[in-house]
Records
---
Amino acid sequence: MKSSRRLRRALATATGLAIAMLAMAVAASAAFAAHRVRHHASAATPADSAGLNAPYAAACLLEPTTGTVIVDQQMHRPWPLASVTKMMLMLIVAEKLHDGSLKLSDQITTSAKAAKMGGSQVYLKEGETFSLDDMMKAIVVHSANDASVAVAEYIAGSTEAFVVMMNQQARRLKLNDTHYYSVDGLPPGPGQSADVASAYDCARLASELVKYPDVLRWSAIDAAPFRNGTFQLRNTNHLVRTFNGCDGLKTGFYYKAGFNVVATAHRGGLRLIAVVLGSPRKNENFKQAAVLLSEGFAQYEMYQVARKGQPMNGSIAVRRASVSTIKPLWGGNVAVFLKRGDQKNRVKIVYQLPASVDAPLAAGQQIGVARVMLDGREVASSALVAPGAVPANGSLFHRLLGDL
């Protein structure tokens, strides 16, 4: 009996030791996994396990001038954005630079909150000041969270107020799959929600951003010095180094979001925007975006209908002037987005002009409109303008003759 009890105690002790060792192994494994996520992440689990075996969770390829969607791969699927969130901050800043309410030389002072931001950063110190231009380089090139907070606070007074602005802008642009909760796109904490958008909404937002030269100036930077050269900004978007014509736009990553990229490139008069969200492997997002862009450039073109300053086919009569006719000029460049090999005779031009115009005319004065039609549908238009100043004939005889 005693030996039986001793055996049971020995077995219990051995079992307890085994359980303890197993628990320690699990804990060590979890700690190692957490360390890899924080420091050496080379793979990500998308928010939905359905995307695990695919190269991405959602994708879109879009031509921004016409808004034509070339590739749609679950492009309306909402997805965690990570630092792609910063694209809306970029747009708000670009618009305010354009309307004059901000200047690139504005000095942005780092708050205590900005200085404490984690993740990707340029290690701003409380009270440290940089120009808006430098802060935006840090945000767009290096995806700096501390700079994002500093700029948001400078514009709106607080990050919370700036997030309200971001969502108002999203509603104005009808980005129906988009909602923001932060200015930086960091992973949400307990009880918080992730910033989300669809691939299509990201492409639409990018279409707005590429209208602003400052945005493309920042996003095309490969590397740049910061803080008097003591810190080097390195573009997180590898495609600016590896894909011909790529000049932007933004990347994002955290564990549950996967690897995201919004990329734009310009070749031969054609600009395309590719969005890849939720790639489970590092660099897979860049590879897939490059494939989308390459296929787009191979299959499509911008067919140049007319260039600014080019005379139209035909002329218009001028009354009360020493010249009897003028050839109006195209007021802007006009191109039509076509699949390569499509028949160009599908494109027609409809001129809307009066039968005659009266002098005097100023150089560049609009006198009509050219409407460009593709298969009977208007796809572009341009003002038609006077090629030069046409003074009125000062002779009373000529004025009277012109009235006959």
---
Amino acid sequence: MITSQNCIQFILDDQLHTIDFSERKDLRPTTTVLNYLRSLREHKGVKEGCAEGDCGACTIVVAEPDGTGKLRYLALDSCLLFLPMIHGKQLITVENLAEKKDGQLTLHPVQQKMVDLHGSQCGYCTPGIVMSLFGLYKNHHQPSRDTAEEALTGNLCRCTGYRPIIDAAMMACVNHGEDHFTAGETRMANMLSEILQDQPNVHIETDQQKYFRPATLKEALRLRSVHPDAVMFNGATDIALRQTKKHEHFTKLLDLSGVSELNFFNEKNDSYEIGSGTTLEALRNLTERKLTVMNDMLKVFASLQIRNIATLGGNIGSASPIGDILPVLFACKASLKLASLSGERTIGIEEFITGYRSTSLLPEEIIHTIILPKPAENIILWSHKVSKRTDLDISTVSACFRMQLGADGLISDIVLAYGGMAECTKRAQAAEKSLQGAAWSPESVSRAIAQLDTDFSPISDARSGKEFRSIIARNLLIKFFNETSNIK
């Protein structure tokens, strides 16, 4: 049992590890798992390629109890994980995959197939690729090629070909996830559950930082009230970059990633209610048949490693002007339930986003629930993302459109929401006004396109020029029309 709140515990190399931040002056609460592993003699397989979640060279797999006595295996970018985030979890690196028994070393099936099919050249990117394959192996039996490719979109490699790697994935994942980890899974799940029972909340104070990771909503709201100045996050894919790339120092942090009460997806008669702590990968799987417009955007959102940790609430709270999910929420007319110790309030997503990376969230509040009304049968929802790469890229412009046709065939409701065209996600209100009450025709679309320059004055930056963004905005509306013009 941990007696000091300055401690975290996790499993590595099949052994219980305890880090006491009062004693380990070389470590901070915001030390990344990547940098921690690189400090260990026996875990040099993990590599730093970009330190921003783009290359996958630092991929690890984290196992956590799934509530049924088994483990859930997640491939993650260790450069985006702070050490307290692995409290009560099993940390698996490439060094753990091969089985050592009676002096003999037997490669894991994914490793053996990489060898057999010549799936690697140098050793820099290969460990991360192998760990992504291991995550695929534990989660999918005989995966489709699309599933295998999806598992590898977060791994870039300069010197090898992807075909033999994908072939290795397809040929290795045929054992229903059975391997040398399987026999000890129940024991491991019990060990991890005991850690979390002994110390559900993490509270770390050092000379330079305070880090809070509550396990319950009640404790999270209390901490939010007592420490309104703490930087709050749920996933760290954004805040970790602020530390590693912008070299920001955070003196006080509130990490909501341990609050399971914020992780849910409930279907009501007229809406979907989604917990702010729901990961984007979980949301992608949940919306495959229920809310395809959201699923379409999530398919091209970052990579599996990032979606496994990034959350819907965290994405909304960052209020990024190029956030791919926000245009979808605008078009779906989403609302947010905000919670505090004094109660709850509900606010529309458009009112919540107030400007460049700014929101109307009060200092004592957290995002609790995202409410998406179910669209009626005569409502058309459509989303699209434009970026230099299809996968693992930030959007140049993203959009989500909503259109409702009345019984007379005229447009009774229209929402044209764009990301990347202004300081925050915005609707093309002049274009919408020109379409309201009109027929869905080439003529009405042409009039709306002419209004887009009135709606937006995009900037030029490293990702795109102003003129190109304006062209994209027009072309997206044309694409929407071309794909829906036959719908009556």
---
Amino acid sequence: MTPQSTRPNMQLTHPNIMLTCTESDIYESLLVLDDASILELGCGKADHTGRIAQRHQTATIIAAEVDRVQLGENLAAAVPENISFTDFGAESIPLPDASQDLVLMFRSLHHVPLPRLDDAMREILRVLKPGGYAYISEPVFAGPLNEMIRIFNDEEAVRTAAFDTMCRAVETGMFELANETFFLVPVIYKDFAEFDRKHFQVTHSERNVSDAQRLAVERLFNTHLSPDGVKLAQQIRVDLLRKPLLSSRYPGTSDTVNK
């Protein structure tokens, strides 16, 4: 397990996560989504996008995804009219300054190229209105499910880098830390074939899983197998960052108070 961060007020991991819920429970409790202008970066299959759009029909959502295969599927799907799909990354956002109430990143910050992580935070700051929020959830590098996935996709370094980037953004005053929440999301697999489909057969990454890795994952998977399948939980951390009302220290921001 990754050592506990010593950053003040921010933790990379948590030793005893008690809350089990869906991610929608978290963002519904933290954010005001009605009437909001929302930018989602790295929307993937747009599960959260669609859920938010349907529940909050007065919100307008720009959902960006750089994986062209997934973007094509999103564009071809029937979706609510308040969603617009597009194809830019967090490190270069072609939207006006101070145009968004909320920026959402569901487990996608660590997919930003490492040399561009700070650029991504500056871009998020730029497009947020003063007082606006960046909701960033990231998987925690811990737990039985993580132990299986790390065999073929070890993301410890990139997840730590994403966390360090957020910490720098708070420590330098770019953002204010409004909330940090750890929770568990139940994950159920009927069998190993379902795990294979969800983790090995993805379009946004080239897995190149070897036979030895696949066998090692299957062996570990089977240690959790019961007649009801495999029931695990993914550990998630949410950092809710707020753009200060006065942000003139940073290029592309203004001192205008959000009305």
